[in-house]
């Protein structure tokens, strides 16, 4: 049984601003589609071998002892499977699951209500746990450590704290920012699993599995092609699969072939490396308008008609991760790989591009404008 409590305020602001087909955050449509695609069992969870092995030991040991396992923290970028793993944990334990999130818990009282309704052995999933309000966080420490909460009744001088015993339960926290968790909270997790980006081979398996679920026929090499453009992220892989399926249904015979895959991905402007129109516009401006840089962030943003913050937080991280863009003390630079990717001729070496520009060891933000 899965019970959702207060899931409303879920990280909406981050993706309503700019909905991109290669965005890793879940949009409303993803949320509707993803339920059907989540693996139920640990054995069906693709990749993340280390985390899977560690987790299965924790779960097996707990079930041998017949006690709820220790609290667990799952960290990693959006779309890599944290929510899925939390559900798998409850499923493998055969325990009920309650779901809430940091932003949904506004007051300690909200959390007290959730905690006091827990059954013995229940799994409490707290998504975006780094966004819990401080009083709720403090209540959670105590609940996790002592299985007890103090419920405050009344106000002012007359207020009294009534201690309430909780049945043993397992908290599973998910965060995209493990570093933002205060250490007292982090210390109360007996196990931390860090999820990393997937390889194209792994994502091909995710896609093949999803295609089977959705009863879509897909050639292995098409699955690989979609996988290579999915930025290491299963959520993106599943979304691109759905868009390619649309294309194949409308313009092709239904089955996904290499031809319809390539055409669909061209229509949706997702290039072979998973860059979309905006990513390419930024790189292109950097190479053609500023000779590959260095150029200040805000100048670059103006050149592509976007907000500085959008370029910095939404576009750049992936370009940096891919080694296409560098942040230097003097500004942004295109790496040789960027020129190659755009099929442009890089300027001759030792002209404007002395090697020191590629030394990114110094200041990282390069806000020189
Ligand atoms: N290892 C995996 N194997 C199969 N599907 C996965 C895997 N990881 C994630 N997915 C799929 O990707 C989508 C996003 O996963 P989710 O757990 O919601 O990510 P997160 O909570 O980390 O943002 C879901 O549809 C899920 O089924
Ligand atoms: Mg999630």
From TrEMBL:
Positions with a binding annotation for Mg(2+): 83
Q: NCBIfam families recorded for this chain? A: PRK00080.1 (NF000868), ruvB (TIGR00635)
EC number per UniProt: 3.6.4.-
Query: What name does UniProt use for this protein?
Result: Holliday junction branch migration complex subunit RuvB
The record's subcellular locations are: Cytoplasm
Q: Which gene encodes it?
A: ruvB
Binding partners and assembly: Homohexamer. Forms an RuvA(8)-RuvB(12)-Holliday junction (HJ) complex. HJ DNA is sandwiched between 2 RuvA tetramers; dsDNA enters through RuvA and exits via RuvB. An RuvB hexamer assembles on each DNA strand where it exits the tetramer. Each RuvB hexamer is contacted by two RuvA subunits (via domain III) on 2 adjacent RuvB subunits; this complex drives branch migration. In the full resolvosome a probable DNA-RuvA(4)-RuvB(12)-RuvC(2) complex forms which resolves the HJ.
* Ligand binding (DNA): 327, 332
| Predominant location | cytoplasm
Tell me the function of this protein: The RuvA-RuvB-RuvC complex processes Holliday junction (HJ) DNA during genetic recombination and DNA repair, while the RuvA-RuvB complex plays an important role in the rescue of blocked DNA replication forks via replication fork reversal (RFR). RuvA specifically binds to HJ cruciform DNA, conferring on it an open structure. The RuvB hexamer acts as an ATP-dependent pump, pulling dsDNA into and through the RuvAB complex. RuvB forms 2 homohexamers on either side of HJ DNA bound by 1 or 2 RuvA tetramers; 4 subunits per hexamer contact DNA at a time.
| Catalytic function, reaction form | ATP + H2O = ADP + phosphate + H(+)
Q: Which organism is it from?
A: Dermabacter vaginalis
